[in-house]
Amino acid sequence: MSLTALFDHQGRRVSLGMELGRGGEAAVYCVEGQPELVAKIYHQPTGPEKTEKLSQMVKLQSERLLALSAWPIGTLFMAGNRSVAGFLMKNVSRFKDIHLLYNPKSRTREFPPKANWRFLLHTASNVARAFAAIHDHGHVIGDVNQSNVRVSPETAIVNLLDCDSFQISANGKVYPCEVGVPLYTPPELQDTEFREVVRTPNHDNFGLAVLIFHLLFMGRHPFAGKFLGRGEMPIEKAIAEQRFAFARDAQRTQMLPPPACITLAHLPQEIGDLFTSAFDSPGAANGRPDGKQWIAELDALAGRLMVCSKNKAHLFFNGLSSCPWCSIESSGVLLFVDYTIVDTATGFSIEVVWARILAIPSPGEGNVPSMLSYISRVQPSSRAKVAALKRRYKVAALIVAGVAALAFVVTSPDGFAYMYYFGMVIFALHKLLDSDAPAKFGQAARDAEYRLRNLEFRWQHEASGADFTAELDRLRTLTEEYRKLPERRKQKVRELERALYETQLRHYLAQFDIAAAEIPHIKDGRKAMLSAYGIDDAADVTRSALEAVPGFGQFLIIQLITWRQSLEATFKFNPGRGVDPADLQRVDRDLAKRRAEIEALLSKGPSELNDLRRRIIAARGRLQVQLEKALMDVAQAQADESAGV
Questions:
Q1: Residue 446 covered by a domain
Q2: Taking the model in full, what pTM does it have?
Q3: Tell me: the pLDDT tens digits for 189-203?
């Protein structure tokens, strides 16, 4: 099609500039003299139905639609031809595809540092606003997918693209959406011929929930997970069978979330309920959450975020007890990057701070007094002496009675006849003189020893010098690490230099996103599953990583490895290029962050160490009297027990 003579619907000539992009149906061009506009030109002239639809869309434009979408502003015609050649729309070239935002790896490349989880929440809320605007005007998006949503890197404002494919209602007539992407299509429309279907906002709301899930869950698809049953569970099949991988009732869905990912438990109950309503089976009949419902809950969550104390780039729901991003990143997955390079000219002096730390006097070991010194000072109590005397009387009485009985038995002719009676007398005498004093003294000794052990335990944890010594050792270790930071940087740079070939190859392969690649037998559903397991570009493709992805057998693994090898064959190593500046910046950023962390910890060191010393001394004063009394009680109880036995 010749593009030299184009006119808009008002008959004004329109001149096209450079081509900005091309797809299977059309190409997009700059408009000369109107940088705020672009022109979408079809490869083939449109038919009467399409021409009528676009003309109606131009008439239906509104301020709200134009603010949130690339809605047709004016139709374009060839000279002497009444069929539409294309249309004008606003220029959103400064916006970026939404998948570049929700994928952690591309986000660090394509978006500024402020694109943290709060930014993702705002984007999700703005996606919901765009959907609500289309629905409020009586239209349906239909072909919901990641390619027709773009985001402003500065403001998180969202604009919808490919509006000419939307289902439009005008003058009582419905112009259908004839296409759709299975990964964003609700269960009731899976394997459906879209040309025969009149879409509803409820159908769109399934795709809306998928996009919001992508943004909140770092690019994960809600139906990509580990299937606990037999056989393979592709995402399209999981959608058709309502097997939400993050559902609270995994026993029903037989699905588990992929690794290194947050779950519904990390979100407010209200957000989790919206996802459940969108993806569980009742959604088709009862109505899925619409844009307005999502806006209310997402904005509420944005107001309930807290900053992680360990990493300022981490923001999370304040209803949680700990940061979920720290836990995930500890497994080696980088989700958010804080690009701020800390200014080291802060007046911090390691030598001055360390001298202040050493100036805090030690509270000493604070050993528990010896038991021997108390035992030597204690005599049995009068009660124990009386009990001991009674016991000796008892023993003597029993011996005398026994001797008398024996003499009578031996000397008397009838002695043996009275043996029974003598036995009864001796038994009665034994009971009469018996005493429970030894048992009581023994129990008193055990009770005193138990109280002493408890006090000794408290002394070791509150009053000994062990905590002070441990804290001083920790601060000493931090000081040594701080002093070695310059050498650590040199070591990191040497490691980069030694791994120059591997680093260049990794950076080269990382340019090739799997989502945009044409790989045999690897369609959108399989690409989403790969992304759910952290495999997003050619650099991520390794046999070990692929073997961990559900549904990827040897055939598919070979397809991906072959694709990676074909890219490796085009790589050219440049030994003279040196270390990549981005890698050096990453080293400096990591070390600057660690330097700031150590400075903060050491700066608080003197006051915290002094506070610890005061607490130890106060605990000793509080426990010393109790401990001395307990030692005396044990010594006394043991002396009484020994005397009373």
A1: yes
A2: 0.72
A3: 998 888 888 999 999
CB 638 within 8 A of CB 384: no
Instruction: Identify the helix (H) or strand (E) that includes residue 150.
Output: strand 149-151
Residues with a known catalytic role: 143
Does residue 367 sit within a domain? no
Average pLDDT along the chain = 85
Q: What are the beta bridge partners of residue 87? A: 40, 75
Q: Which amino acid is at 235?
A: I
The answer to whether the CB of 384 falls within 8 A of the CB of 639 is yes
Q: Each residue of 346-371: pLDDT tens digit?
A: 578 898 999 999 988 888 876 665 55
Q: How far apart are CA 617 and CA 635, in angstroms?
A: 26
Are 303 and 361 within 8 A, CB to CB?
no
Q: What is d(CA 24, CA 157) in angstroms, rounded to the nearest whole number?
A: 27
Q: Is 589 found in the same domain as 619?
A: yes
Of the chain, the percentage scoring pLDDT greater than 90 comes to 55
Residues 409, 302, single domain; the answer is: no
Alpha carbon distance 199, 620 (integer Å)? 77
Q: Are residues 78 and 101 both part of a single domain? A: no
Phi, psi of 465 (to 5 degrees): -90, 5
Q: Give the pLDDT score at 444.
A: 66
Considering the domain architecture, whether residues 609 and 583 belong to the same structural domain is answered as yes
Angle at 336 between CA 331 and CA 338, to 5 degrees: 120
pLDDT for 488-522, tens place per residue? 999 998 888 888 899 899 989 999 999 989 999 99
526-574 residue pLDDT tens: 999 999 999 999 999 999 999 999 999 999 999 999 999 999 999 999 8
The CATH code of the domain that includes 274 is 1.10.510.10
pLDDT at 406 over 50: yes
Element (H, E) at 41: strand 37-42
CA distance 140 to 160: 12
- Render pLDDT for 52-69 as a digit per residue (tens, 0 to 9): 999 999 999 999 999 999
Q: What are the φ and ψ backbone dihedral angles of 62, each rounded to 5 degrees?
A: -140, 165
Rounded Cα gap, residues 25 and 44, in angstroms: 8
Q: Shortest CA distance to 478 belongs to which of 586, 312, 364, 608?
A: 608
Own/partner contacts of 575-579, CB < 8 Å, gap of 24 or more, are 575/500, 577/504, 578/497, 578/500, 579/493, 579/496, 579/497, 579/500, 579/503
Is 121 domain-assigned? Answer: yes
Tokens 């038991």, residue?
A: 371
SS3 assignment, position 188: helix
Residues 321 and 430 in one domain: no
Alpha-carbon distance values, 400 to 239, 404, 426, 435 (Å):
98, 6, 10, 19
In a domain, 118, yes or no: yes
Neighbours of 640 (CB within 10 A): 27
Q: Into how many domains does the chain fold?
A: 3
Residue 276 structural domain: 96-329
CA distance 449 to 455: 10
